[in-house]
Structure prediction request, 456 residues.
Amino acid sequence: MRPNDLLPGVALLGLVIFVHELGHFLVAKWRGVKVLKFSLGFGPALLKVVRGDTEYRLSWIPLGGYVQMAGDSPGEDGSMPGTPEEYLSHPWPGRIAIALAGPLANLITAYLVLVIVGVTGESLPDFPSTVGPAPDSSAVYRLGAREGDRIVALNGTPVASLRELMVAEDRQPAARADVLTLERGGRPVTLTLPPAARAPFFVSLRPPRTPAVVGGVMTGMPAYRAGLKTGDLILAVNGRPIADWDQLPPALSGEVDRPVRLTIQRDGRRFDVTVTPMNATGGTGKTGMIGIERPPQRIYVERHGLGPSIVLAAYATVEQVGSVYAGMWLVASRFLYYRSYMGGPMFIVQAASEQARHGLDYFLRFLAMINIAIMAFNLLPIPILDGGHILLALIQAVRHRALSARAYVRFQKAGLVVLGTLFIFILANDPLRVWQRQHAMDQTSREKVVAPPGGP
Prediction:
């Protein structure tokens, strides 16, 4: 990646860290705890200025940040701080508030960003209002539609895409029958959907068939490591021809954790790429995923007013919080399996820059997700993290006395071991992922051209 390509990712990471540390800083000041340093980044200071008791600094290593408070660790003689303006001797409710402030600032930021996305507009994939695959058993077929029919109006309202059709359907009274106007072979066809048939029809309505073209590659996923690129056309899976995108997911799902040979067409060349689908759910169902996206044939921009955006952003924030914690549980429960998919600062910068290339709304949604991920991770009850400080404060509340300096040091050392081990995996993954991608790209450029599936 060129240096300019990294700027969106660096800006995102800096903003997330700044918001988090600002939360700690403001609440510490409010509670009367002395803040010695407020730093973005680690290591030697690039820039610094002193105001009052606090040194504000921008440091050389942009992998995080910190707020250093007076009395946030035992003294060299093993004594604990003794005044309320020092963190460890501050009353436990105040310590909880200070520790909670960073994650809460990230959560609020994520919510506000999603409100902005709702107001300014969200780009959603869309397709022409053409009926896709409609097997005999589907509600679409039973109610009279056929693959290739073009839906031109719903209850007299013209529609040009599937998204427009769904929006128009949502606005119809629930007890009313729908009248669909279709075009079949150049002739108009009218279908009437009774109220009870509306939901089954629209649930079984599929987009039109499209070639299995890679619309996007998710950073760090198996397809990324295997060297697939946006625009690649997948012709076959293990030699079995793939005629359209809908044939691809079932072909890959049956090959979870097993190397799969994809026949790819790129820039007029045909060659094979080996990729191993991962288990996307972690359960026994084994839903295979390689991390590619279907290319939209159209883009639908959905905007809401401020009021609806405030409500919808709240639902979206709650949903993302649940999704992040579900992902964390998946990694924790099968760490050895999913460890290679964990990413650190380099991964965030890469992924953020990739999202920025898709558009501002993609970048903002990723910004919201990373804020929520940082919040969720920091609330884990691990020493050194904010969740560990909250746990210590709650222990003090139950015991009615603080931990001794010796117990506190042991607690922190245990946290260092846990986090140190975790960060070794994460930080090692980042350059390894980039190397794997580059190695795979180099390999595909040298791959021997193969005959197309089914013959020359």
Q: What stands out?
A: The first strand starts at residue 35 and ends at 51.
